[in-house]
Amino acid sequence: MANTPSNMLPLGTKAPEFTLRDVVSNDEISLDNAKGLKGTLIMFICNHCPFVKHVNEQISLLAKDYKSKGIACVAISSNDVENYPQDGPDEMKANAIEQDFIFPYLYDQTQEVARNYNAACTPDFFLFDDQLTLVYRGQLDDSRPGNGVPVTGKDLRHAMDCLLENETNTWDQKPSIGCNIKWKS
């Protein structure tokens, strides 16, 4: 299990555009039609990573808690499915249904979107405001597989609350830690 940190895209960065296929609905989803009224959370996740498996329940809950508040969530998997077939679209769909994801789970076959976001690991979280300007990037919380810290989503929830309350997030933005994105060779 690799411990790869986020690259920490600079705050203020505009969200790179994308159009990708949602593995559940089979619809093409663009950033423009996926964005939330007050904010948008872009999550780079996958099926097989133990770090993602550790937080799946919390990200499902978080999406449900913030949808009605105007923050939309989108998950993207960019892993090389030739070498990691468990991260393929059919498996992604099954995982999204099993985890009760209410957000689009998009397949980044070319890995271009992950590169544009400078994503490094799974999970990797990017929170944008209503103008699609980056206000938070980093960890969900301090919990990691095996460290005994409960998964609460504390850091990301705080950032989302600050966004909704139009307050500056003064907390340290710590990198997420997870498995590296499985890049194609």
Question: What does this protein look like?
Answer:
There is one protein chain. This protein is of the alpha+beta class. It has a single domain (4-180), classed as Glutaredoxin (3-Layer(aba) Sandwich). The chain has five helices and ten strands. The strands form two sheets. A seven-stranded mixed beta sheet has the order 3-2-6-5-4-8-9. The chain has a three-stranded antiparallel beta sheet with strand order 1-10-7. β2 and β3 form a beta hairpin. The longest helix has 18 residues, at 50-67. The model has no long low-confidence stretch (mean pLDDT 97).
The level 1 CATH classification is Alpha Beta
Helix run count = 5
Output the strand order for the largest sheet.
3-2-6-5-4-8-9
The CATH topology corresponds to: Glutaredoxin
What is the alpha-carbon Rg in Å? 15 Å
Short description:
The protein is α+β, with helices and mostly antiparallel strands. 26% of the residues lie in helices and 23% in strands.
Descriptive tags:
about 180 residues; alpha+beta; 7-stranded mixed β-sheet; 3-stranded antiparallel β-sheet; globular
